Amino acid sequence: MARKKAEHSLCLVGLLPAPPSYLTDFPNVFVSATGTNFYDQCFPSGSVNFGFSCMAAYWLSQKPRNLIKAVLHIFSEDPDERNKFRVQAEKDWERFLLMRARELSIGKTLNYLDYLVIEQR
Ligand SMILES: C[S@@+](CC[C@H](N)C(=O)[O-])C[C@H]1O[C@@H](n2cnc3c(N)ncnc32)[C@H](O)[C@@H]1O
Asked: Bigger pLDDT: 4 or 107?
């Protein structure tokens, strides 16, 4: 019954045809959500066997300063603007990985997909 409800909520209560889903293909897959900040630990230590994160951690934990000369820091030509965002991104990336490292079981996998900025120095 709970599975049916989840399937229905995923297809807007029957307004749209349900897309193919692991929810219907595999009886032993259960979906849950956590509203936890991913810069904190989201799951108990050593409890995650497979982690997947897609296009999310490019959101920094905080804005290091207002952008004056660009809408996105990657397009800024102001070295101070770019540097402050780079420093914040480095701190956040380390914290993100440390939190995931606590959560993962030994020998298990985190798959991560996101934007990458490569700078010539
Ligand atoms: C571009 S969406 C990607 C969503 C999904 N992973 C996908 O690929 O379709 C980025 C998501 O990251 C979430 N997000 C941003 N900062 C977060 C944080 N500190 N903790 C948890 N989620 C965060 C946003 O709310 C948003 O849902």
From this structure: 107
Round the average pLDDT of the chain to a whole number and report it.
86
What is the spatial distance between Cα 58 and Cα 8, in angstroms, rounded to a whole number? 31
Structure tokens at 117: 């900025």
What per-residue confidence (pLDDT) applies to 4? Answer: 56
- Residue closest to 9 by CA, chosen among 26, 34, 33, 27: 33
Residue carrying the six token digits 């800024």:
76
Task: Please choose from 52, 53, 59 the residue to mutate so as to test ligand 1's pocket, defined by most ligand atoms within 8 A of CB.
Answer: 59
The pTM for the full model equals 0.80
* Closest residue to atom 8 of ligand 1, CA basis: 54
